[in-house]
Task: structure prediction
Amino acid sequence: MKAWCLLPSTPTSTVTEAAQTAASNSAVPTAGLARRLAAMVYEALLLFAVAFFAGWIFFFASGGRDATAGWLRHALQIFVLVVFAAYFLWCWLRGGQTLAMRAWRIRLVNVTPRKALLRFALAVPLVPTGISILWSFFDRDRQFLHDRLSGTRLVLAGVSAAPPTTSSASPP
Result:
């Protein structure tokens, strides 16, 4: 159960479930760097299509005016950025995966609306400049900088955490 779904009358179960979720997410292996970079390339192709569609909508909404100069150009850029944000936030908050992440079997964990918005805001300047990718070579967990700063993590999808072991197992 998600913490925001719980009633206030169950504080003990909220803490227990949150601890179990955090423990299980940390036990799932982080997706490899090559897999994450391949997903980024695929995501770039998908974003090209999303931006093209957003530009098409903007063109018709603006009455077919030229949006290559002036204030209309900035309005188009802001509109495309908002469409990108809507795409990523909707995907991350509804299952932790975009289409490219599903294809490469990667899932975003430890995500909340606040963390998703922070992750997007950090990724916008850090990914295109390569800073976030360069950071992953030096990070102890090989995480991207925008994941490290937002408190999220990319893991292999479909891989479950190892079951807990008990030290007092009885012989068969």
The CA atoms of residues 36 and 102 lie 11 Å apart. The radius of gyration is 20 Å.
